[in-house]
Amino acid sequence: MSFHFYGGVHPDDKKSLTNQAAVTALPPPEQLVVPMSLHIGAPCQPTVAVGDTVKMGQKIGDSGAPVSAPIHAPVSGKVIAIEPRLHANGTMVNSVVIENDGLDTPCETIAPHSEEELRDPEALVKIIREAGIVGMGGATFPTAFKITSGKGKVDTVIINGAECEPYITSDHRTMLEHPEELLKGIELIIRACGVEKATLAIETNKQDAIDLLQSKDPAKYGVEILPLRCRYPQGAEKQLIQTVTGREVPPGGLPAAVGCAVFNTFTAYSVYRACYEGMPAIERVVTVSGSAVQEPKNLLVRVGTPLGYIFEHCGGFRKDPDKILMGGPMMGNAMHSLNVGTIKGTNALLAFCEDEDKTVKNPTCIRCGRCAEACPMHLLPMYLYLFERHDDYANMDKYHIMDCIECGACTYSCPGRLHLTHSCRTGKAKMTAKRNAEKAAAEAAKAKAEAEKAAQGAGKEGK
Ligand code: SF4
Ligand code: SF4
Fold first, then answer.
1. Do 30 and 341 meet the contact criterion of CB atoms below 8 Å apart?
2. Would you say residue 327 has pLDDT above 90?
């Protein structure tokens, strides 16, 4: 049985462009740029130097911070530079540049772990951490930290197979092509989290995957398959928790606050590979699609592969693309350079032609209320839009702009073509900047007061 979440929309899923053909492995390029920040949390420090020879799967970056994940060489070759390079997030990030020797010489550490280790929950968390596994659905939150921070609080594990964004089929193909490996990976997550079972939630536009997984006796692995009616953004963490359990994550809260932990399908498959093969997180299936792409397909891509190289292997562009996105059409981020490389959470690359651009010169609100009906977070996007444009911080705060999950459902449903999601994203950035500035000012004032007090004390002693 499933529950419901408020709002949502039903976009044309466009998945038939890529969901029928098997995933093919993309030959790695001659040069890969691996940023030392491929996850949420503290960036890594390089553990190699320019001139070093590296093997595929060798650790090349790590951090002592709890919220972080090590980074591994996606190919074997030579480190030719360690320098700031453009990251997919638009900033310059310290990166290890590897010249591929084309040999894929594996690191000695790539070996299956023992049955004894796989039975021990603590050893499993260590393996997951050392393999650099993060949320591969795009969130890139370090998986080992998610497991350890949820210990004692989490009673329900959900595996996210919803893949509700249009165009994206990378997890669908993974479910079809690696069903037993996926179930074994979920079994390991169940054990690492210290719970009894997990729910693998899949939308019914992937009925072939549901049928296949059901035929593999999922109960043997502690897995229950839950088919879900399609509705966007069902795969968003809070909405999925509500659909599966009926529990509502409080504003600003984490899933563990309602006893839940959610892991992406490809994350579970990566856990399988780390444990049974010793393979760290160096590659991911990426859906390459959209109206501007000559041959849409799913490719297994090494981390740090330049976007231009990936599109070339899909026959290039049918027409000059007007927009290129990393991620889906609803929540993806616009890319401004084809030279940036993929990251661990890259599940899709989409390119669209100009004739699909639905923007208008004078977006106008006709007060129809559809955006509020579509918002799964119960927000009022039409007002948040105005508050953001007028820098009205008090009302942005009062009307909970920080709860916006940037799902795009409001923009999708708006007949006035207002850039509602963009406004929310900008408003959140403004709020964060303001809060950081206020915090810095308060800390500076406190430090100044303490220095003055200390100086006064020193003056009295000197008398
Ligand atoms: S959906 Fe668009 S036009 Fe309708 S109320 Fe919201 S902002 Fe206004
Ligand atoms: S983008 Fe934000 S405001 Fe718009 S529907 Fe999604 S959660 Fe609501």
1. no
2. yes
| Helical (H) or strand (E) element with 59 | strand 59-62
Tokens 């459902």 label which residue? 409
367 CB near ligand 1 (under 6 Å): yes
What CATH number has the domain spanning 15-283? 3.40.50.11540
The mean per-residue pLDDT over the stretch 113-132 comes to 97
Is 331's C-beta closer than 6 angstroms to any atom of ligand 2?
Answer: no
* Residues ≥6 apart with Cβ < 8 Å to 98: 31, 32, 34, 54, 60, 73, 74, 75, 77, 78, 79, 80, 304
Q: Is 259 in the pocket of ligand 1 (CB under 6 A)?
A: no
CB 380 within 8 A of CB 399: yes
* Nearest bound ligand to the CA of residue 9: 2
- Pairing status of strand 348-352 against strand 283-289: parallel
Architecture of domain 284-356: Roll (3.10)
Domain range annotation of the chain = 15-283, 284-356, 359-463
Q: Is 420 in the pocket of ligand 2 (CB under 6 A)?
A: yes
Q: Whose CA is nearest to atom 4 of ligand 1?
A: 368
- In whole angstroms, what is the distance from residue 225 CA to residue 220 CA? 12
Does 463 have pLDDT greater than 60? no
The pTM assigned to this predicted structure is: 0.92
How far CA 112 is from CA of 215, 320, 371, in Å, comes to 27, 45, 50
Closest to 235 in 3D by CA, of 348, 148, 325: 348
Q: For residue 418, report the distance from its CA to the centre of ligand 1, in Å.
A: 7
343-301-271-152 Cα dihedral, nearest 10 degrees? 20
Residue type, position 378, single letter: H
Q: Which pLDDT does position 186 carry in this prediction? A: 98
- Tell whether ligand 2 has an atom less than 6 A from the beta carbon of residue 301: no
Closest residue by CA, ligand 1 atom 3: 365
CA of 287 to the centre of ligand 2 (A): 25
Q: Is 324 helix (H, G, I), strand (E, B) or coil?
A: strand
Q: What order do you get walking across the sheet with 59-62 strand by strand?
A: 45-46, 59-62, 71-72
DSSP codes joined into one string, 170-190: HHHHHHHH-HHHHHHHHHHHH
